[in-house]
Amino acid sequence: MTATARALAAATPADRDRYVDLLRVASLGTVIAGHWLMAAVSGDGIGNLLALLPALQVLTWALQIMPVFFFVGGFSHALSYRSLARRGEGPVYAAFLRARLRRLLRPTLAFVLVWAALALAVQLAGRGDGPLGGAALRLVTQPLWFIGIYLAMVALTPPLLKLHERHGWAVFAALAGAAALVDVLRFALGVPYVEFLNSALVWLAVHQLGFLRADGRIRRPAVLAAAGLAGAALLVACGPYPLSMVGMPGEKVSNMAPPTLALLCHGLWLVGAVQLAARPAGAWLERPRVWRAVVAANGIAMTAFLWHLTAMLAVYAAQLALGIDLPAPATAAWWAQVPVRILAAAALTGVFVALFRRFEAPAPAPVPSPAGRPAPASGPCAAAGTTLCLLGVLGLSMTGLGGLLDGRTATLIAFPVTAPAAIGMAWAGAWLVERSAPARRVRLRG
């Protein structure tokens, strides 16, 4: 426990919603644990445990918890934007984007830079096509999709928050209805490419639920949970939707990529369920030790998320290098090794956190102008930077880092993109976000 975490915990305002902080940490922690468990690595490459044991796919109805992170994001974004608006210190939109994105982009770009350098070295050495190495270079950037989508949520918060303040639940209903229409056009009428609209509509609908929570308008969480669970079950039982709430290799339809109405119903069930637990969890979080742990975890959660797959792959690579047998996935011998591998991956993730957590720390505040007010900020510059960042991060999640030298491409919104181009867009976008507030920064000493 760092002194900073203790100080932050001690300084927590009495009206802070501590449960939201717990949900943020718990959702990312669940994703990390799920990835460690699902990876079925053998000498032939990397597979998916849920594809090998389809009966386990029902567990994704509890463990696919990413909708909770977007729900929490909506709550936090509403409070942050309103706080900036109340202060009235210059253009609110640019200040909001910069403040929300900086802490997300700095650890992400550090991760991208380190892995791009590693991938380039591996490919120059002619070692990038092995069964494990090639798969690793494709796999390690895949979780970045979530960061790209989250950047879009940040950028769209101000207009959608205004709509929420005018129309409340009707905005969520409109987004959910549009997502349902997209699935009708996709599955019933066979309209091509329309499914990609749900990459925005489904996650925006879940994000909108966070606005509703911020205003205390989710008053019947049990009804929300029951409706979502029943809707998801009905869609999977009677419709073209698969059982798994995460993507499976080789499947024709995925509930995740792009998201479907079934995943939106799954999100409703999860939001209702976590809301039901809010009161008892809130009392538990009043305990000083518990709250200090949550504060400390929040300070490193994004760094741990970015590096957890690297840690897992390093554990498997060490196993192979040491000549330790990799049993066939899902066998008794494989299950016997799972606890040891997860503990080793957790320990190595801790090492990566110690090395890279500085990039997740809040950046120094801008130096005020001579008049005592912040330097002017540029909304268009911040918006352009955010757009470039989200396109770059999404593109990199699709291309992977295996084709840095051979021009391998992936299709991003109907356009081919290479990994170097995606990295360039992400860095250019981050530069524009910083340029949206050209104030000098002070270096903190001591």
Q: Any overview of this molecule?
A:
This protein is mostly helical and 446 residues long. 67% of the residues lie in helices and 4% in strands. The strands form 2 sheets. It has a two-stranded antiparallel ribbon with strand order 1-2. Strand 1 and strand 2 form a beta hairpin. Helix 5 crosses helix 8 (144-167). The longest helix is centred in the N-terminal third of the chain and has 33 residues, at 92-124. The radius of gyration is 22 Å and the shape is globular. The protein starts with a helix and ends in an 11-residue tail after the last helix. The relative contact order is 0.15.
Summarize the structure.
The chain has 446 residues and is mainly alpha-helical.
Q: Could you outline the blueprint of secondary structure elements for this entry?
A:
Blueprint: H1 3-10, H2 18-38, E1 39-42, E2 45-48, H3 49-52, H4 60-63, H5 66-87, H6 92-124, H7 131-139, H8 144-167, H9 169-188, H10 198-214, H11 221-238, H12 261-276, H13 278-284, H14 288-298, H15 301-321, H16 332-356, H17 379-399, E3 409-412, E4 415-418, H18 419-435
Antiparallel strand pairs: 1-2, 3-4
